[in-house]
Amino acid sequence: MYNEQYTFVRDMPCSVGEEEWTTAPVPQTITKLFQSGNWTMENPSPACQCSSDKIKKMLPVCPLGAGGLPPPQEEHVSGHYCVHLCCL
């Protein structure tokens, strides 16, 4: 029913330097979107459209690329992934 599941564990540190950090592949159209856009800290990626007073939506409608590129990650020996969410 669901794709990959994630568990957040605080007591299992990432093994810095032992494994190669990788970034999930993205379609070429998304890569071009971020290379050609005028992105800033205030406007880092395409915006999602949420509910307003005029239009109510159950979930936000997000274009491709919303949220930015995937962060670097490394696979831990346990099979878990450490995801680098800081300082990108």
Feature tags:
10% helix, little secondary structure, two-stranded antiparallel ribbon, Phospholipid-transporting ATPase ABCA1-like, extended, 88 residues
Secondary-structure blueprint of this entry?
Layout: H1 28-36, E1 73-75, E2 81-83
Antiparallel strand pairs: 1-2
Protein name: Phospholipid-transporting ATPase ABCA1-like
Structural features, described:
- Helix content is 10%, strand content 7%.
- The chain is extended, with a radius of gyration of 17 Å.
- The chain has a two-stranded antiparallel sheet.
- It is largely without helices or strands.
- The protein has one helix spanning 28-36; strands at 73-75, 81-83.
- The mean pLDDT is 80.
- It has 1 helix and 2 strands.
Low-confidence segments: none
User: What's the number of extended β-strand segments?
Assistant: 2
- Main sheet makeup: 2 strands, antiparallel
Using only C-alpha atoms, the radius of gyration works out to: 17 Å
> Looking across the biggest beta sheet, what order are the strands in?
1-2
Protein name: Phospholipid-transporting ATPase ABCA1-like
Organism: Panthera pardus (Leopard)
Brief description of this entry?
The chain is largely without helices or strands. The protein contains one helix and two strands, in the order αββ.
